[in-house]
Amino acid sequence: MAGSARRSRRGNAAAGSPAARSRRGRAKAAGGPPAQPPGHGAFDLGGQRERWAAFQKRHRLSCEEAARLLLDAYECRSLVKHTGGCHCGAVRFEVWASADLHVFNCNCSICTKKQNRHFIVPASRFKLLKGADNLTTYTFNTHRAQHTFCKTCGVQSFYTPRSNPDGYGIAPHCLDDGTVQTIVTEDINGKEWEKAVKEHKTIRDMSKP
Q1: CB-count burial class (<10 Å; 0-12, 13-18, 19+) for 148
Q2: Residue 68, SS3 per DSSP
Q3: In the predicted model, what is the mean pLDDT of residues 172-178?
Q4: What is the pairing mode between strands 158-159 and 167-170?
Q5: Are strands 100-106 and 182-188 parallel, antiparallel or unpaired?
Q6: Gyration radius (Cα) of the chain, Å
Q7: Judging by beta carbons within 10 Å of its beta carbon (0-12, 13-18, 19+), is residue 85 exposed, middle or buried?
Q8: Which residues contact 156 (CB under 8 A, 6 or more apart)?
Q9: pLDDT tens-digit map of 34-54
């Protein structure tokens, strides 16, 4: 036992020596994760730097917003850019969506009153071009849906739906002519909203990129 104790003490002493600490340091450095290279996570724009900066400035986008928009456009190359707005022209927007629109026709109290037929897109594919200061919002009940409309002409050309609060519901009848090919309309029983949305297989995912 005494011999074992001595061996243990010698082992501890050796382990604590500067040479041992140096060897452990070299082993850790060799086996640990590689050091991050300078500028890791950034991307080199090369000859496209000025073009990228001009794109951001022209569309008033942050670097992240510009990258998301271009990635969405690349990954969903079947999308087209629609433009639209209210009746008086104070509110204008652009939205990337299919030329073949899937439109919801809800029969809840407010959608019936204002004939709120709409298709849903992720927020990253919608851009308000002008009129932010000319919009006002009506909410009721849960206040999750944001019914935005023009202060001047009263037209709701888009809004934030309760089913997809992270996206936008766009009124197809407020789009400019020339980019819509077909419209398929699906009735939604908004009078039993919770049940209808729970049973629907895809509506919750329509605001996901």
Answers
A1: buried
A2: helix
A3: 96
A4: antiparallel
A5: parallel
A6: 29
A7: buried
A8: 114, 116, 147, 148, 149, 150, 171
A9: 444 444 456 788 888 899 999
